Amino acid sequence: MSELAEIKSLLEKIDGRLQRVEDIEAIRRLIVDYARGADHGNDPDMLTPLFTEDAVWEAKGFGRWVGRDKAIAFLKAIAGEKVWWSLHFMISPKIDLAADGQSATLLWYLWEPATMPDEQTKQAEPHWITGVYDAEVVKVDGNWLFKRITSGMNMISPAKDGWVKTRFPQGSVTMPYLMYLDEGTYYWCACGKSANQPFCDGSHKGTGVTPVRCEMKEYDFVGLCGCKKTGTPPFCDATHLGLDI
User: Fold this and answer.
1) What is the dihedral of CA 66, 178, 84, 145, to 10 degrees?
2) Residue 241 · residue 77 · CB < 8 Å
3) 192 contact partners, CB below 8 Å, separation of at least 6
4) Measuring CA to CA, how many Å separate 97 from each of 20, 107, 132?
5) What is the mean pLDDT of the chain?
6) Which helix (H) or strand (E) holds 30?
């Protein structure tokens, strides 16, 4: 190889590496822009430009939303109903860029102080929220956009209790029952009369409503419906938010 060819090859490698650095930085900024939109009450004007039209947002316990408009409508409803103030710390983002530079997989941690209503008093209470996000992004017309975001919540704990005493808020007719369940068989209360919510205690007898059997194949996180109107019993599908999407 001639000296000129070697220089050309070296410059191409440098250009490729520089492009990857620029892409990774652009993806980091995308994550920050998502956090800023979330901290503005999941503002649709701020979030919409960050997603592909067919994007998916999902989280165990809260549902799966296919399509940008549906996902953002859900996020906006959650902010108005359950998260009155927040500050998202997106920690240690791991970005794996595809070889062709047109897509990437992401993982980052969440640490979030938030103001949420107490499920009993409906008064504002400080909470700590933590979780792990994984996501897919794609490059569209030179811009990086979210193709999928999957959120996994580790705790949503009232600050006065901490995660040792109260890992998740108490469920209600306006809040799913968030919990980790061991492997085994459970019976979800469908009538709303059980004193052992969200599980059946036999109070349905004579109502014509029967509990829903739930088989857990392994220890896992679930969000069990509290309003009893879900279309995916026993799991919450956000029907309690009254969304028409």
Assistant:
1) -30
2) yes
3) 173, 228
4) 8, 12, 19
5) 93
6) helix 3-39
Q: For the whole model, what pTM was predicted?
A: 0.89
What is the three-class DSSP state of 139?
strand
Burial class (CB in 10 A: 0-12, 13-18, 19+), 195: exposed
Cα→Cα distances 107→28, 54, 90, 206, Å: 11, 20, 10, 49
Give helix then strand counts, H and E, for the chain: 4, 11
* Residue the block writes with tokens 């036999």: 202
**SS3 state of residue 45:** helix
pLDDT digits (tens, 9 = 90+) for 160-187: 999 999 999 889 998 899 999 999 999 9
What is the torsion angle, in degrees rounded to the nearest 10, for the CA atoms of residue 154, residue 156, residue 162 and residue 167? -60
Q: What percentage of residues in the chain have a pLDDT greater than 90?
A: 81
Q: Is residue 81 within a helix (H) or strand (E), and if so which, with residue range? A: helix 68-81
pLDDT digits (tens, 9 = 90+) for 202-245: 999 999 999 999 999 999 999 999 999 999 999 998 888 887 66
Does residue 41 register a pLDDT over 90?
yes
Q: Which residue has the tokens 């919990």?
A: 179
The answer to whether 237 and 228 have CB atoms below 8 angstroms apart is no
Nearest of 143, 146, 107 to residue 23 by alpha carbon: 143
